[in-house]
Write a structure and sequence with these properties.
By secondary structure, this protein is mainly beta. The protein is 6% helix and 41% strand.
């Protein structure tokens, strides 16, 4: 009887999810209390997301399956409030693709208007694909065009279904680098391939993302030990009818991990051809909305945040001065609790600080302090325990994509034995993005060792006047425009790395104190004459190892080779 009931339950579940057999198999396994579910392998086409909600102690083995999602709006796989779930051995792709690509067949005299023909086999120029993110590629290599900056078009028009027009700001730097015959990509940014929110002790391993309309792997509000091994993000196979290979994998970051009680272990991953960074680690920044003698009200514009679950008695809270984000002291928390009695004044203040986001209810917290903290209403605060401390990134390979290899804004971490090459921005950046993204925080106790960084800084933005990451490895701080950046990062060690090829410095240190740069081999740097690089940030660069606005920096036993000469171009 028990077997008959189980079979009846499985048949009912499968019937309810006839359009999503993966969801049906997982739901059946959960209903039966099984510890593992194995997918059937092969290609599985899904028109809805796979949702895992409040699931514990389950292994999902893809058995080599490829999940092809046929809608561009819901995320591919979503995990919410899950614990001790393992997801492994499957691939994710999208059909239709979340980007289209073509060849530039016309350029206006001022270089600011391009006409292009869509490649065979790639999506036609419907409204969704007239996107405001454009990427220019060298057709000889299939890599992003050297010295072309990020492109944010003023307009994208469909002249026909297969021919389009892109118009950019004529003052965009380096427009003369774009050539007839170059390839161009327009990508949709909506959702993620794998999304994990409010989860604990996850393991994701041997997963591949060939395309997605946004971040490949995004994790928020994470607890416990979260492990990510042998993840791959790379372009998938030729689409039907295509003769040109895919130029893009994920439309944004490969791996974005934030608002976590502990940092991730990222090991043996390979990320290539994305529309943004390989790795982004960061935490929250809190607006100070009210001040008492030993308590603060902290505000954020987003609803449903759970920082009171990952920080509390004994954790450090750091005060930051408005504008410069200079640390003004740190004290221990007595408690952190959700504040329910929220005033309109607090909401208005938070909205003014995050004007790009439509303010809903927001989330507010009452921080009780072990002793007074010298901040005022209008200042900021950060709680390092909410920013993913204790991360490890090792034995990974990141290549041929926009932006930076790693964007690190978390503390107490190790970055070792990674290979980074062919990225448009810096290889590794360490420091906060307070001024625009409102991502904290000041970074401390991070070791960067035994990494190989080759041919980075390929886009001309890295040596522009507004650049604040002026080296293949950059320690930096981004504060509000017009303010000097204080030495808020501390305890950074950069040792035994090999850097070969960057138009600015090999290592650039600013906004920091207590940094050691030792035993590195640095070759073929500072090969672009860029006297204005970083000038609007109060920065400069002329040396292979440059210190600019930093204190107590030790530089010793580094080998400097062929400064001022470009590397041999692998193209």
């Amino acid at each position: 009887m028990r077997i008959m009931l189980a079979l009846l339950m499985l048949a009912t579940t499968l019937a309810a999810h006839a359009d999503n057999p993966v969801q049906a198999l997982i739901d059946a396994a959960v209903a039966e209390g099984r510890a593992q579910v194995t997918l059937p392998g092969g290609e599985l086409r899904l028109d809805s997301a796979v949702l895992l909600n409040q699931i514990e102690d389950l292994v999902i083995d893809g058995a080599g399956s490829t999940l092809v999602f046929t809608e561009l709006r819901p995320s591919g796989i979503e995990l919410h409030h899950c614990s001790r779930v393992t997801l492994r051995n499957l691939s994710i792709d999208y059909d239709p693709l979340p980007f289209t690509q073509g060849t530039i067949v016309g350029i206006s005299a001022d270089g600011a208007t391009w006409e292009f023909e869509v490649h065979e086999g790639y999506p036609a120029l419907t409204e969704d694909y007239l996107a405001r993110q454009a990427y220019v590629y060298d057709p000889a290599t299939g890599r992003l065009r050297r010295e072309v900056p990020d492109i944010y078009p003023r307009s994208v028009e469909a002249l026909t279904e297969r021919r389009g027009r892109i118009t950019v700001n004529p003052s965009t730097p380096c427009l003369d680098r774009v050539q007839l015959g170059d390839f161009v990509v327009l990508n949709i940014r909506t959702i993620s391939a794998v999304k994990a929110y409010f989860c604990r002790d996850l393991t994701l391993e041997d997963l591949t993302v060939n395309a997605c309309p946004g971040i490949a792997f995004i994790v928020r509000y994470a607890y416990g030990e979260n492990v990510f091994r042998r993840l791959t993000v790379e372009p998938g196979p030729l689409p039907a009818g295509a003769t040109q290979p895919r130029l893009m994998s994920s439309g944004a970051d490969a791996f974005n991990y934030a608002f976590a009680a502990r940092g991730p272990l990222v090991e043996g991953c390979r990320f290539r051809a994305m529309g943004d960074d390989s790795i982004n680690l960061h935490g929250p920044t809190f607006a100070v909305c009210a001040v008492g003698e030993r308590e603060l009200v902290l505000g954020r514009p987003y609803g449903g945040e759970t920082f009171e679950e990952m920080a509390g008695r004994g954790d450090v809270i750091r005060g930051l001065r408005v504008g410069s984000f200079e640390p003004v002291g740190e004290v221990a928390l007595a408690s952190l609790e959700r504040e329910r009695a929220v005033t309109d004044e607090w909401r208005a203040q938070v909205q003014s600080l995050w004007p790009r986001y439509e303010m809903g209810t927001g989330t507010f917290f009452r921080a009780r302090l072990a002793e007074p903290l010298g901040v005022q209403v209008g200042d900021w605060a950060e709680i390092p325990a909410t920013a993913g401390p204790g991360f490890v990134i090792r034995d990974c390979e990141f290549a041929d994509h926009r932006a930076r290899g790693m964007r690190i804004q978390s503390s107490h971490g190790v970055i070792e034995r990674n290979l980074i090459r062919g990225v448009q921005g810096a290889g590794i950046t360490i420091g906060p993005e307070f001024g625009y993204w409102r991502e904290s925080g000041w970074v401390e106790d991070v070791t960067v060792r035994d990494n190989v960084i080759e041919d980075v800084g390929r886009g001309c933005s890295i040596y522009g006047p507004t650049s604040y990451t002026l080296g293949a490895i950059s320690v930096f701080g981004r504060v509000e425009d017009g303010f000097d950046c204080p030495p808020g990062n501390r305890g950074i060690v950069i040792e035994h790395n090999s850097i070969d090829g960057c138009p600015v410095a090999g290592v650039h240190i600013s906004c920091a104190r207590g940094v050691r740069v030792t035993g590195n081999r640095i070759a073929h740097t500072n090969y672009v004459a860029a006297p204005a690089a970083g000038s609007r940030r109060g920065l400069s660069v002329s040396l292979p190892i440059e210190v600019c606005g930093a204190e107590d920096v030790t530089i010793e036993d580094n080998e400097l080779i062929a400064t001022g000469e470009p590397p041999t171009d692998p193209e």
